[in-house]
Structures are given as structure tokens and as C-alpha cells.
Amino acid sequence: MRVGVPRERKDGEYRVGLTPAGVMQLVEAGCQVVVESGAGEGSGFSDEEYVRRGARITRDPAEAWGCELVMKVKEPLPEEYGYLRRGLVLFTYLHLAADEALTHALLRSGAVGLAYETVQLPDGELPLLTPMSEVAGKLAVQEASYYLKRTQGGKGTLLGGVTGVAPGTVVVLGGGVVGTNAAKVALGMGAQVTVLERNPRRMAHLDDILHGRIQVLASNPYTVEQAVAYADVLIGAVLVPGARTPKLVPADLVRAMKPGSVIVDVSVDQGGCVETIRPTSHSQPVYEWGGVIHYGVTNMPAAVPRTSTVALTNATVGYAIALARKGWREACRQDPALARGLNVVDGRVTHPGVAEAHGLAFTPLEEVLRA
């Protein structure tokens, strides 16, 4: 099978769908790999490195997109919709529940859309989302700390405080991978940290691994309202796999936050858990609403592309080899976790969260895999 790796074109996106090491593994598995020239430069990988590992370099993006399996990092942009076609298996982050235009473009094309973020193991783990969630969780507090500075429009609070001065307060909504990593970094910076979580087991886990040094509260409308009101930094780390994120923080609660506070909503690529958040980019990362700074960059891990690309390839390459060797249908039949990554197949929506988000008919996986 031919595997294509196009250059990413999203604003500020420096990651690439495969490292040279990943290319080598696919080539050893019998694949032909076509990499668009310059695709790896942002992550520090030259065309020559890809060639040494067995890839063929092309300057024509259509040639990379013309392969049977295309591996990317982020969703196709409108200018790339023309590359979508029947017979294409697109393996990337899609976040379709928050992107109606792309959903319909994929449906019209007849392509197979396999989303990294909905590949799910029986225990609920999301193995292809986890590495980027770790990165985003750690970056979220770093970015919030930067924009909390008065020179960046923030309230001028140092998260760690100093002798005789109280530290800043960080409130994290969600205790999953993003929330846990955000809490670790905030705690390491010396902040006062509160995590709100619904799952009792997850709450106990957080309390255990962080040795009781943070406050872990059961998440409900009352505790959210109380915690958000005193937050210097609010981190949105809520996830419903494949579906739109519920709005846990309404606009009136944002208005009640302290002027100059900072919101970083990591769940913005699934719609966000804060009512006033909207997608932003690395070139224009923040905006002010109600006196509060909002950070809504949808591809946060692109800020550290070397780390992110290596971590992502480590997670995806095994699944890519299975897809290449067996074809998407047989690979998904044999691996239920991979099958959960199917969001659209031959003009049909195969993920309930995507169907619900856009009011579309849902086709069960069993039906498409039986064909």
C-alpha cells in the first residue's frame, strides 16, 4: 500500500504525520511512503532524512494525497477538500463533532475518515489522543502563566507567589490526561490547584498520585460556580470522545471572574466547555471577553513540534502498519479499538457523537464492517 504524508497547512502547525523512524517501519512492512517536500521541516526532519529511511519526496501535494492511506496531524482545511475522494483512507485528528463543513465534505467525497481521537481501548483509554493530551495539559498552564502577566493584559499575578504573598489559583475542569498534566505543572509552579472531576475513581487516583497536595472536588454546577469565581487561571480539560464538549461554564459565570484572569480551554477543538470560548490560532492566540483573557488555540502541541511529532508517531505507526497490511475494513474487524476510530465511511456517519452533533443519520459500525 502507498502511504502519503502531506505537509500540514494549518496556521502555526509545525508537526508532521510521520517521523523518519515511522517511515522506516512502514517501509519495512512493505509500504511505499510518499512525503511532501518540507513536511517535516517544522519538526526538525529534513527531506534527506526521509529519503534515507526509504520515503520518496514529492513537491506535488496531490501526489501525497493520491495515496491509498494518508497520514496527517490535523484535519483537512477547506482548500484541501478537493483531495478527498472515494477509496481514500484518511488517518488523522478530525474532531468532526465541532466541524460541520468538514463532516459534509467527507460524506460527499465517500472517503473513509479514521479519527485518532476516537480510537479507544476497552478500558476507555484513547491511545492516539493521550500523547497530545499530555503535551496540551502541560502547555496549558505555561501559556496561562504567560498571559496572566500584566504586560500581556493579565491581572499581574505570579502563579507561584513569593515569600509573604499568596500564590495564584488554578482551577482545572476535568481530571483526565489533560487535567492531570495541567495540575502537575501548576502544582510544580507553586500554584494553589483545584481539579473538578465527576468520576469518583479518577478523583481518588488524582488525590493519590498528587499526594493530597491539590484540592479535588466532585464536579457539579455548584462547585463549578464556586471554583471558577476565585480562579486566576481556568483550564478547560473536559472530553466526551467524539462528541461536542458540554458547556460547563456559562457566559454569566465568565463575567463573574476576576478582571485579567485567563481561560485556556483545551477542549476547544471539540467545541469547548466554556460558553465564551472560540477557536484561535498560534498567530492570534488570545482575545478578551468580559475582562477575561481567552486562549483557544486548537493545535496547542504544534508549539513544541519535535516532542509532539515523535510522541504521535510512536502511538500511530502500529495502527498504520495494520491498516496498510490488512486494509481498513479487515484491520478494524480484527481490532475493535481501531474500529472506534471510524467516523465516516463511504458517505455514512459511523460515530454516534458526530451524528448527534450535526443531526445526521447514524450507521452502526457492525453494518459497515460486514459489507
SSE map:
Layout (H helix, E strand, L loop, with lengths): L1 E4 L14 H9 L3 E5 L10 H6 L3 E3 L2 H5 L3 E3 L17 E4 L7 H10 L2 E4 L14 H18 L21 E5 L3 H12 L3 E6 L2 H10 L5 E4 L2 H9 L3 E4 L14 H5 L6 E4 L20 E4 L2 E4 L9 H22 L1 H7 L1 H4 L2 E4 L2 E2 L2 H7 L6 H6 L1
Parallel strand pairs: 1-2, 1-4, 2-3, 4-5, 5-6, 7-8, 7-10, 8-9, 10-11, 11-13
Antiparallel strand pairs: 6-14, 12-13, 14-15
Helix pairs in contact: 1-10, 5-6, 10-11
Uncertain parts? none
Task: Please tell me the total number of domains.
Answer: 2
Mean pLDDT score, rounded?
96
CATH homologous superfamily classification of the largest domain? NAD(P)-binding Rossmann-like Domain
- Would you tell me which CATH topology of the largest domain applies? Rossmann fold
Distance, first to last CA: 21 Å
SS element count, helices: 14
What gross morphology would you assign? globular
The total of beta strands comes to 15
Q: What is the SS-derived class?
A: alpha/beta
CATH architecture of the largest domain: 3-Layer(aba) Sandwich
Helix proportion: 25-40%
Q: Could you state the order of secondary-structure elements as H and E?
A: EHEHEHEEHEHEHEHEHEHEEEHHHEEHH
